[in-house]
Amino acid sequence: MDDLLASDAPLSIEQRQVLIEILNTMIPQAGDRPGAGDAAIVDDIVATGQSQLSAFKGLIRMAGDVGIEKLETMRSYEIRTVMSIVAQCYYRDERVMASIGMEARPPHPEGHAVEQGDWSLLDPVRARGPIYRET
Amino acid sequence: MEELEPVDVLIIGAGASGAAVAYSLAETRMRIVCLEQGGWMNPLQYPSTGRDWESRAWGDMAISPNRRQREADYPVNDENSPISVANFNAVGGSTILYAGHFPRFHPSDFRVKSLDGVADDWPIDYDTLEPYYVENDRMMGVSGLAGDPAYPPKTSPMPPVPLGKSGSVLAKGFNKLGWHWWPSDTAVATEDYDGRAGCINLGACVSGCAQGAKATTDVTYWPHALRAGVEVRTQCRVREVSIRADGMAGGAIYFDANGEECFQAAEVVVMACNGVGTPRILLNSKSNLFPEGLANSSGLVGKNLMFHPYSMIRGIFEEELDGCRGPGVCIWSQEFYETDPDRAFVRGYTYEINRGSGPVTTAHMGMMSGRIPWGEGHHAAFDRLHNRITGMVGICEDLPEEHNTVTLDAELKDGNGIPAPRIDYTLSENSRRMLDHSVDRATEILQAAGAVDVYSESPIAVGGWHLMGTARMGTDPQRSVVNEWGRSHDVRNLFIVDGSIFVTSAGVNPTRTIQALALYIADNMKKRLANLFD
User: Is the ipTM of this complex over 0.90?
Assistant: First the structure.
């Protein structure tokens, strides 16, 4: 396991395979939603987490020590770091965004539609009169 | 060291206050230079133009300079504070990342000693600032609705941001309880305004507005100031303000974009670097005349730091809400703003309603809190939260206490070797009680609005957005750093126009008042040009 700790080198094939198992345990494939271990999503996760390789390697080591199923109950720095990166990458994948009813596009330049709402909701607030403190 | 041709006015900092004072002074036709440690932002590179827009709020557009670590940033040692500093360094300053929630102070905010027996009264009042609020509203482009019962009468140049689904649901909750709410005054243009395009509901206001609808001073004040002849020098970081033999400020020593040390002589120096940056420079400006830092004969430079402790309260609803669609700001409530002797604290707070969040933020919060589990239940749990969370933050008035300080760190330095600021801050008992009250009442509001679950964080650990009080204003030179129109008691050609000069914090976002004060101080300077230093 020493090589999992000491190096800034990219993940080995074996390490990447363990990571994929962890990610698919975290977010499994279901219906039209891919698992987080999907190859394209893993590529994004690893690229995004390039400066956090030690966290990935620490997580992989923990999986070897305690088993993947027990990782969720642990709230170590490594797990929180990887979960954060997974959330960022999984929920910007085009297939995932489509499956949750969102267009896979940046907000700009199209923007979004937001309803004005019913301004008569203010009637009781107006009826109450001033509430600020006189000086 | 390169010595540059002297100028009439040297402004340090191109953010909210520096832009306003530059614009106002420009009509004097004096030679005005502004030094800014950051650069001009390119709106087309803001996060909302990319698919990774939410992620960048944890990276290069994070609110913490320690996390962001852009070249323009200086580190802040805030380990001895439950609230960490949030800022941004660029032309536009922290307006680049603010939400654009834009309340004014209230008349009572200037009279806390007289009314409640705490802190100090300001040497000026609401009526004094009112015309400058109006001018600032016009320059920034404020959207809002007249008639708010929580304020004296005021108007806005543009109509308010939409209520949307989230605002409507929460408004009904407030109404059930009979409590105040009103559409927020916002620094978001709801229509095309002064060359800026109207809001198209990008939902990414706090990462920079690619549309230009949010009033950041690089797109509001600065274009006008530049056209009037003001020069902005970017990527120029000030090390210290120099002092002349006669005790007047001589100018500033700074590092330019190439790291070269320069000296800019000036007849007048204006500090506009926020409640941390300004005391940092003044404390770094030690001399034989001012061995404890420039303009610090009172010993109050860097003391009385106020943050606004924030609570965050969120409700989970069964119906679909706005999510990340629309400006985050929406409505506010000042039901618990003014002091009530029946409560266990003095002064009060504002609720700023936050519309919702995007899928990444929802997943992040859910996974970190355990609401979204690993495994088979992940997708169903996410679906229960996605576009179904809304809520508010409580912005609590922070009373000044001398032990809350900005000092110079003994070891930490920025990229130019300038000592970095250190924050020592303790949450007061009054603030803790106010925070607790804000969480409890918000829970009632969310439940009245139909929330099926409520969660909170209090105080928000990363929520040091508002930096105030560290060079306070007053008439007594022993109890304040600047006089009632922003001039240093000690150095008669040194002015401070940022949040440092706040006597008290009020319970509202401070930018509108910071800018009104900057315009007020600039106006006083213009009226006194013939005898400015008397």
Answer: yes
